[in-house]
Amino acid sequence: MKLLSRLALATLLALPLAAQAQGYPNKPIKMIIPLAAGSAVDNAARVVTQKMGETLGQGFAVENIAGAAGVTGAERLARSTPDGYTIGGFNDSVLTMVPHLVPKMPWNALTDFVPVSLVGTIEWGLVVKAESPYRTLADFLAAAKAAPGKLNYGSGGNGSPQHIGMALIMDRAQIDVVHVPYKGATPAAVAVAAGEVDVSMQGLGTVTSLIQGGKLRLLAVSTPQRLAQYPNVPTFQESGMPNFTFNSWFAMVAPAGTPPEIVQRLNDAVRTAVNDPATREKLIGIGVTPRGTTAAEFGTATKAQYELYRKVIQDKGISAN
């Protein structure tokens, strides 16, 4: 009897959301971004939601809730009503790295959110000072193997994507390079250009101006194929590291319990946006490669990357402290 009562109550609670799904959306939608304004995700979100708003017939309001490596803003989303009127614009760090770095997480990345779509990726590569003796990735790896613990690399801080990206390279190549954390990705990139550190694994949007200005040399890109904007720069795979890829995401999620019909409407709007020529051009112009996956595809990718980073963070003893 108690079980039947609970099932009946759950059914009653679900009815209002099901009814809302039929007329969705009939008011503006808020997107919570757990990152600072001006970040790659924030910039991309403002481009994509403009087109999504046109498709859905309702405007989007972006709310940046930065702090605690994204934990604070993500918690706000996790506690929001799952009616499709509050969604999230997350990067991969919030969903797949931070959960393994922060003790006593107030939310679960795999159960407190439902995937909407992987909207785009921010491509990465390994950079050195323009005058560096390392002309190729193979040059750098050979030098690191010849002198374990003598070379160093800069990152945006302990537990940052730059830190984890380089940890993956070290693990795959079996090299020992000293970590030098900075207060952000840009200071780490500038440090490489100034010769303070030997290398840095960086999102290309962060280092494009330094590469174009002749301050940094891009040794390899961590994409499956060469990039159109850097046709002469080989991939890691071409440079002797088979199956190595690494990038950042801009993804959309919703609170757990959001009706599937609403998730599908949002997914359709994302895919319409990233396939719009003008929107694609704007995204590529700010360093984002448009993607637009199904919700299921994004869910599978999240789980795989969650486990990958869990292992490397634990194996390498990486912490946010």
Provide structural commentary.
Helix content is 43%, strand content 20%. The protein contains 11 helices and 10 strands. The protein has helices at residues 2-22, 40-56, 71-78, 92-97, 137-146, 161-173, 185-193, 204-212, 260-274, 277-285, 295-315, and strands at residues 29-33, 60-64, 86-90, 113-129, 152-155, 178-181, 199-203, 216-221, 247-255, 288-290. The strands form 2 sheets. Strands 1, 2, 3, 4, 7, 8, 9 and 10 form an 8-stranded mixed beta sheet that branches. The protein has a two-stranded parallel ribbon with strand order 5-6. Helix 2 packs across helix 9 (260-274). The relative contact order is 0.19.
How would you describe this structure in keywords?
single chain; 321 residues; alpha/beta; 8-stranded mixed sheet; two-stranded parallel sheet; 11 helices; globular
Share of residues in strands: 15-25%
Number of helices: 11
Structural class: alpha/beta
What percentage of residues falls in helices of 4 or more residues?
Answer: 40-55%
Along the chain, the helix and strand elements come as HEHEHEHEHEHEHEHEEHHEH
Rg from alpha-carbon coordinates: 21 Å
Q: In angstroms, what separates the terminal alpha carbons?
A: 51 Å
Low-confidence stretches are 1-7
Query: What is the arithmetic mean of pLDDT?
Result: 91
Count the E strands: 10
For the largest beta-sheet, the strand count, sense and barrel status come to:
8 strands, mixed
Shape: globular
